[in-house]
Amino acid sequence: MKLDVRDLVQRFTTPAAAGRPATTATVLDGLNLATGDITALVLVGPSGGGKSTLLRILAGLDLPAAGSVAFDDEPLPHDEAGLRRYRRTVGTVFQAYNLFPHLTAMDNLLLPLVNVHGLSPAAAADRVREPLDRFRLTEHAHKRPAELSGGQKQRIAILRALVIQPRRLFLDEPTSALDPEMRSEVLEMIGELRAAGTQFVLVTHEMAFARRVADEVAFIADGRVLAHDRSLPFFTAQPHPRVRAFLAGALAS
Amino acid sequence: MPRWLAHLIVVALFAAGIALAFWRVGYAWNWAGVWDYRQKFVQGWLTTVGLSLAALVASIAIGGGAAFMLRSRRPLVEAAARTYVELIRGTPLLVQLLIGFYVVASAVGLENRYVVGVAVLALFSGAYMAEIIRGGLDAIPKAQLDSARAIGLTPDQTLRLVVLPQAVRIVLPAVAGQLVSLIKDSSLLSVIAISEFTLAAQEVNSFTYSTLESYLPLAAGYLALTLPLAAVSRWLERRFRYEAA
Known about the structure:
Low-confidence stretches of chain B: none
Number of helices of chain B: 10
Strand content of chain B: under 5%
Order of helices and strands of chain A: EEEHEEHEHHHEHEHEEHH
CATH superfamily of chain B: MetI-like
Distance between the termini of chain B: 33 Å
Number of domains of chain B: 1
CATH topology of chain B: MetI-like fold
Structural class of chain A: alpha/beta
Number of helices of chain A: 9
Oligomer: heterodimer
Largest sheet of chain A: 6 strands, mixed
Shape of chain B: flat
């Protein structure tokens, strides 16, 4: 995938309440980012810097206030109906609460296949059998989310995004809500996908992992890209002092 | 101890207490006089069942509609629903029935008191239902709606496949409680001369002067409706049970 983001602006308005006027925060402030033709892009940076806001726009969940986004020279639609069609071609995984709690893991996987992509229940079940097995989740398929560990839930959520055979995945801090021992199983799964050539954009605070899977890394702060490079020079020859300090702090913690 | 045995013991103790109270008062029973009017009780009870069923279905529809209006982003729609809910919940059903029947229904030329009764009862219960259902809809985390959008569900599908199945489970106990109230509140329809169960008991009482013999069957008749409703509600709750993730 080749991503081209130009002059992207996003603002959030908090409506006026008792004794307080409406306030507008600029979260993306004319962000520009052009990548090569790569498999994995990783977005890093401080919390509140705009990474997740950017990812939501890339995933077609939010419309930007201004600016444009194109994947492989194909611009993202500007209307909700177009965006919904676009969302059906990509997969998105959030930090937590991806799965629907009233459905089993299996039914969570089947829901988009049957209700969005029009597969018959039997064909959908066929489609998920092999991936469930490959990621050692078959024995958990009949369980409700409450019976699954945090790591299992995230792996099912990634699988749900994957079985629709998306053009690419968007992963928004998929391990941030997990205990350390569960992070590795989720990161391992993402690593396997990377090895299999699945394209994705990942927002993460896991710097060692970012360095391992990313083709390119962008550092986002204050609604702009402060640094952007191929993975190796980004981590080993970072010229920007603020980014260097961030990386040193993240790797130390 | 099995649960059924525990229930049996509690009910037996309670019944014994009531029986003891009657024995101490030395009440002179006259069931024979009331028995002659059994047909009246049956008719009244059936009318109450019919009125309650109709009002029950209508109140869920009204409550559901008003719940979505309460959540509307359009100020006028939200204000209309809010006004309806607070006006109905803040005034006695008795007043609503009298105004509904003698003023509103007369003004629009609606003469069927049964239709008016069901309508007022459904509007009354619907206001409570609206707040219950709104609470259930609000309880679905925003993250779930994001996930639904992310997999490409339409707003309709999100409502049908994600929101409603979860909201039903959340509101079920409160809705069942409201329906029990509705059945008992239907006794007030006697004030607009609908010959339902309570009016039947009042009439039998005035014929026989056997007050308790007239009103005890009333209690039993309402329990015969509300206890199965509570049982169905518990069964549905078990069916929809799952832990929140």
